Each structure stands twice: as C-alpha cells, then as structure tokens.
Amino acid sequence: MKTVLVTGATSGIGEACARAFAAAGWRIVGTGRRADRLAALADELGADVFHPAVFDVRDEAARDAALAAFPQIDCLVNNAGLALGTEPAQRASLDAWKTMIDTNVTALVSLTHALLPGLIARKGAIVNLSSVAATYPYTGGNVYGGTKAFVHQFSLGLRSDLAGTGVRVTSIEPGMVETEFTLVRTQGNQQASDALYGGANPMTGEDIAQTVLWVASLPAHLNINTLELMPVSQSFAGFQVSREG
Ligand code: NDP
Ligand code: 8X3
After folding, report:
1. Distance 38 CA to ligand 2 centre (A)
2. What's the average model confidence in pLDDT over 37-59?
3. What are the structural domains, with CATH classification, of the chain?
4. pLDDT exceeds 90 at position 129
5. Residue spans of alpha helices (H) in the chain
6. Residue with CA at minimum distance from ligand 2 atom 2
7. What is the pTM of this model?
8. Rounded distance from Cα 12 to ligand 1 centre (Å)
9. Which of 31, 167, 204, 244 lies 20 to 30 Å from 13 when distance is taken between CA atoms?
10. Looking at the CA of 141, which ligand is closest?
C-alpha cells in the first residue's frame, strides 16, 4: 500500500484529497492544526487508512516530531496554504504578507527538503498546489500571487534537479475552487465568500483532488509538469488603464 502525505487535510482541497486517495487504496498521512477535523477523518476513513499529524507547517520541530512515525512517504502533496487580504499593496498588512510567505513558501520548501531523501529512495512524487494567481495578476493578489509563482518555479526547478532520480514533480494551478479559502482570506466574512462563489459554479475540492490523484497515479514514466484548471465560468479580462484628467 502506497502512502501519501497531504498537508492541509482539515479542509477544502486537502480534505478532498484524503478521501480521494483513500478510495483509491492509498494510506494517507493528513496534516493540519485542527486536530478535531483530522480525528473525524480518521473515524470516517479508518484509523489504518488515515493517520492524523497535527502541527503548524511553520513549526519545523513540531512537524518533524509528528512525522517521525511515517518515514516511508511515496507522494507528498504540498497543499497547506492561504491567502490573507484583498487590499492593494499600498494598504496591505505586512504581517499578512509574512504569514503567506512563511506558510506558502518557507514551510513548503522546508518540508520538501526534509522528505527529499526518502522520496528519491522510493522514486516518489511531489504535487505542489500553486494557483492561476501565479500567472495572472489581479489587484489584491500581490504577495499571494508571488508565493504561488514561487511554487510554480520551484516545482520546475525540482524537476530539473531531480533528473535521473525517477521522482516526479507537478505544479497544480487552479482557479476558483469553493473551499474555506475565501473565508480565511477575508477573516471569516461569509457574505464575501458567498458573493464570490454564488452563481459561479466554481470548482470543488473534489475536482482538484481527482486531478491530484490522477497525476500521482500515472505510469512511472509520465510527468505532468504544470496543470492549470478553471471553472468554465471563470476567464480572463483585459488590462486596466488609468487616464489623466
Ligand atoms: P482551505 O482554507 O479550505 O484549506 C487550507 C488548508 O491549509 C487547511 O487544511 C489548513 O489547515 C491548512 N493550513 C493553512 N495554514 C496552515 C498552517 N500554518 N499550518 C498547517 N496547516 C495550515 O483552502 P483550500 O483547500 O482552497 O487551499 C488549499 C491550497 O490550494 C492552498 O495552498 C491554496 O493556496 C491553493 N489554492 C486554492 C484555490 C481556491 O480557489 N480555493 C485556488 C488555487 C490554489 P488548518 O487551518 O487546520 O491548520
Ligand atoms: C486562489 C485562486 O483566483 O482566488 O489561488 O487567486 S484566486
């Protein structure tokens, strides 16, 4: 039985990944800070299938202690992450920027570094959650988009460095997925979340989870480098032009 480590399994895409991989016969180590949600998933999926690992991804010591019991990881899904705020850069919170960088970039890099020797030994796979925000700027996306652009380019760089090891690396780059993402971004503003997703028929965590599972289950000689997804309802707008007078 193969083992996948899914960070951020308490909600949204990560929680859906836990269910999708379980249905496909994988063992899952699911992480997050909300222990109650991980315990509920273990109850649902079975304690021999889903193994909770409770820690903040920014706390390397807590992470290493929690993951010591799971040395054999075949697939790392770097999913835990967040956006904070929708303000333009000139009004944004520096603390929020640092939290996004610490979580989406530094913690992802650190966990990847820690697991690389084992992943190489097992010819494993790394699936990183980037975003369309990595490629398409929008007002208020500033540092969030920057962190996801980092994830995109880091994934490609890993592919380059890992040549010949058999390790696969993929950057998954979704657009609008209805999860707790917007609630977190707006500090719990349910109205803002409902307004964004309402009537838009957004993607679901399950949509992305099936994609992650597909990528991780491909024949060993195939690598999806980057994969960008959007709901049909979402698309592109033109440039903005500010005019004098
Ligand atoms: P959710 O808010 O629903 O889930 C985020 C998950 O990340 C939770 O399980 C949360 O766990 C975990 N997490 C966040 N911060 C930390 C932390 N410091 N330590 C440990 N775990 C943490 O959002 P999504 O499922 O939508 O987001 C998952 C990933 O997908 C993110 O990287 C996001 O950027 C990316 N993404 C999302 C899109 C969307 O439209 N929803 C589109 C493109 C990419 P807990 O709070 O329990 O610690
Ligand atoms: C989340 C997608 O479009 O809200 O990464 O930035 S978006």
Report:
1. 25
2. 98
3. 3-175+205-229 (3.40.50.720)
4. yes
5. 12-23, 35-45, 60-67, 94-100, 108-121, 142-161, 181-185, 190-197, 205-217
6. 175
7. 0.98
8. 7
9. 167
10. 2
